# Entry
Amino acid sequence: MSRAEALSPARLKDAAPLFAALGDATRLGLLVSLCSGGPLTVTRLSGQFDVSRQAITKHLEVLSEAGLVKSARHGRERIWTFEPKRLEDAHQYLERLSREWDVALDRLKAFVET
Amino acid sequence: MSRAEALSPARLKDAAPLFAALGDATRLGLLVSLCSGGPLTVTRLSGQFDVSRQAITKHLEVLSEAGLVKSARHGRERIWTFEPKRLEDAHQYLERLSREWDVALDRLKAFVET
DNA sequence: AAAAAATGCAACCAATGGGTTGCGTCATTC
DNA sequence: GAATGACGCAACCCATTGGTTGCATTTTTT
# Structure
């Protein structure tokens, strides 16, 4: 991948929904629970928050569409697990942004010094 | 700061609006523009997107409240600049999450091996 | 086979978000 | 000093979001 393509509009459209999924306190809480508390069911998860089970289900679906969690039926219950891959994408995106910023600063510095 | 406090609910409430501000393609685009294109005015910025100037103003205010951009009046125009500090916060938050995940994996591994 | 547990599904509701248009204000420039 | 340019403010609109309640469905469990 070329440096110039690092922050293309295509990547913006990819990164935005990912950050949007992270942009809710309850969903971040769910991620932390699944992260450190291991795979869990909806009913157990909803016990840790003061919203209904159905609300938690919706949040988990949002996280799922963003690729941050995964679920699997197991008998009568559905087990949700954290999915670290997309987190790395978000991480890389922030990295590229701050790198772009550093490059700009260097350009400015070079310009001032000449 | 203790490790146990690294992902406290207080931090969730702090991180959520930050990610929410990043969770929109137009706003990410604005950040990229301000990042690599240097400080700009609203009208110049809105020329780069196919939404109205007023819409861009709203987006910039969201970014501003999240601490991702800063503005200063200069004569009849207002100059917007990128603010890298809060980006570092977001970065650190993701870092803590994935570290929490690694710790959990290690715990699991230790448990399986005994 | 009946009760209980875990989830799915749908309707509904209030608030927020992203967008618009219209107009007023203030600094510049001619 | 009058036109222009950049911006602020407010009202309004529609779609989305986060939440609820109620009830149906599917596995367990007893």
Remarks:
- Chain A touches chain B at residues 7, 9, 12-13, 15-25, 27-29, 31-32, 35-38, 82, 84, 87-88, 90-91, 94-95, 97-98, 100-101, 103-104, 108 (CB under 8 Å).
- Chain A has five helices and three strands.
- The mean pLDDT of chain A is 92.
